[in-house]
Design goal:
Blueprint: H1 2-16, H2 35-51, H3 58-63, H4 66-85, E1 93-101, E2 104-112, E3 121-131, E4 134-143, E5 152-154, E6 163-165, E7 174-176
Antiparallel strand pairs: 1-2, 2-3, 3-4, 4-7, 5-6
């Protein structure tokens, strides 16, 4: 089974013209060439870090026999493989790429929330800036949880409950996940 997976991975990599798959000790390479490829490589690194991180066995080796340690390691490998196979970010989608200038791009995406919630995605916006010819994340925006991305909320203090600007996102419909201290500007 492992040999089939390795062969399949090699075929896919050769077909796509990409580098071989990452290993436990070597994360995937970031692709800075275009905004969408950069975001996809961010996702690949997240999946890698969630499923391939080295496990520190130093404490386990002090307590268990070598046979038990082998069983524990085998179990962990199976769990990591299952987690990798079902990782929610495998279902992420790039919705739109807007290159606003030579140094700024905006990538709208749908990111899967969790392993258990089948159809729940977050709508996010990666704001990228180009530094030394490479795209980098300068901000990550998510839909405002108060106004659901509309920038407006119901004003219950008025009769009839008209709509007013959302005070949580300041009417933008999105909030930064990174630059939270600059939200009030």
């Amino acid at each position: 089974m492992k040999r089939h997976l390795i062969i399949l991975a090699c075929i896919v990599c050769a077909h796509c013209g990409e580098q071989p798959a990452a290993t436990r000790n070597n994360p995937p390479k970031y692709d800075y060439s275009t905004p969408d490829r950069f975001v996809e490589s961010v996702w690949a690194n997240k999946i890698w870090s969630d499923t391939s991180a080295a496990i520190d066995d130093s404490e386990i080796k002090k307590m268990y026999s070598q046979e038990t340690i082998s069983r524990i390691q085998s179990y962990r490998e199976k769990e990591l493989l299952l987690k990798k196979k079902n990782h929610p970010w495998l279902h992420n989608q790039i919705i739109r790429v807007s290159i606003e200038s030579d140094s700024r791009a905006v990538v709208d995406v749908r990111e899967k929330i969790s392993y258990s919630k089948q159809d729940e995605f977050d709508n996010l916006t990666y704001v990228l800036s180009r530094e030394n010819g490479q795209w980098r994340i300068s901000d990550l925006l998510h839909e405002c949880s108060i106004c659901d991305g509309t920038g407006k909320k119901r004003d219950y203090s008025r009769l009839g409950g008209g709509m007013i600007e959302c005070n949580f996102c300041k009417g933008r419909g999105k909030r930064s996940m990174i630059l939270t201290e600059q939200q009030d500007e």
